[in-house]
Amino acid sequence: MNRISLSAAVVAIHFMASASVQAQTTSPQVVNIYSARHYQTDEAMSANFTAQTGIKINRLDGKEDELLERIKNEGASSPADVLITVDASRLELADKANLFQPMNSKLIQDRVPASLRTANWAAFSTRARVIVYNTAAVNGQWVSTCEDLSNPRLKGQICVRSGSHPYNLSLGAALIAHNGEAAVEAWAKGVVANFARTPKGGDTDQLRAVAAGECGVTLANTYYVARLMRSTLPADIKDMAALTVVWPNQKTSGTHVNVSGAGVIKTAPNRANAVKFLEYLASDSAQAYFADGNNEWPVVKTAVTKNPALDKLGAFKADDLAVEKWAPQTTTAQKVFDRAGWR
Ligand code: FE2
C-alpha cells in the first residue's frame, strides 16, 4: 500500500504528477483512496483488502476539508476513486458538491441498513454522541437528554468542543430534523449560556476537563470514551473513575448516532475497484476492525466483535432517523450555531 500524507506537500505533488501514478490510475489493479480517517487499524484493513483482491491501494491521507477542496480542484482529472471520511455532515457536503456517483452495489444494499446509506454514500461504522458528567458536580437526572443541556441549572457546567466541528454539527442537524430550527436555536443559545469556558480542544480534552472538575458535563463520541475505558494509564483510569456516561434521549428519539462512511468519486478512474473496496468495508472482517481496533460499532449486523469497552457500554436505543433525513440539515445547523454564538 502506498500511503501519502497530504501535509507532505512534495510527496503529494509527486502523487499528482508522476508518470507511474498516471499509469496506475488506468490499471485495473489499483484503487486511489482519499482518506480522512486517521486510525491505525485502517492500515491493517487496507492490507487485508490487497491480500484478498490483489488490488493495490494508493492512499492519500488528509484533513476532511482539504480532501474535499482537493477533489473539487482536481476536477475531471482527479485520480481519486473513493473518499472515506468520518461524519455524515462531511459526506453530505461532498454529496452536495456533486463529488459522488451512485454505488449501485447490491451487496452494500443487502449489508448496510437502509437508514445508514444514501444512493451515493454508505456508512461503514457508527459512534454515538453521549453525555458524560461528573457526579460531584451534576445530578444525573438533570442530563438525560441533549435538550437538558440548555437548562439554566447547568450554568457554568458545560465544556464542549467547537460548534463548527462536524460531530456537533451532525448532532445539531439531527436535533433540527426532530425539533425544528427555531427550537434548536433556542437550545444552542441555552447551551452557550451554560458554558464553563470558550470551546477548545477535542472530545478527549472535554472528558479530561470534566474529570478534573473544570466543568461538570460534556458531549463526547463513544469511541473516545471507550478508548479511555481501555487505557491502562493510571491518569486515564483515574479520569474514567470520575466520569459517568449517559445514553441521551432514551425515552424520546434515541441517542444520536454518527457515522464514518465512504462514496465513489464521480470521476473515479477505477470505478469497479472503488466499489470492490466499499464492498470490502462491509465484509465481516473489515467490520470487526472498526469495532475491535477503533471502538466503533459495525453497521453489518452479522459482524462479530470482541471489544470489552463496547460490551461494557452495553445496549442502548439509537436514534434510527435515516441519515438521509438529517444529514442535509448540516448547513442549517452551522448557521444556527453561529447565530447562537457557539464558536
Ligand atoms: Fe474523532
Structure description:
The protein has 343 residues and is of the alpha/beta class. It folds into 2 domains: 14-126 and 259-306, 3-Layer(aba) Sandwich (D-Maltodextrin-Binding Protein, domain 2), CATH 3.40.190.10; 127-255 and 328-340, D-Maltodextrin-Binding Protein, domain 2, CATH 3.40.190.10. Helix content is 44%, strand content 17%. It is built from 16 helices and 10 strands. It has helices at residues 9-17, 19-25, 41-53, 64-74, 88-96, 106-111, 166-179, 181-193, 203-211, 222-230, 234-242, 271-281, 284-294, 308-313, 323-326, 330-340; strands at 2-5, 30-35, 56-61, 82-86, 100-101, 121-134, 217-221, 243-246, 257-265, 297-298. Strands 1, 2, 3, 4, 5, 6, 7, 8, 9 and 10 form a 10-stranded mixed sheet that branches. Helix 3 (41-53) runs antiparallel to helix 13 (284-294), helix 7 packs across helix 16 (330-340) and helix 8 crosses helix 16 (330-340). The longest helix is centred in the middle third of the chain and has 14 residues, at 166-179. The radius of gyration is 20 Å and the shape is globular. It starts with a strand and ends with a helix. The structure holds fe (ii) ion.
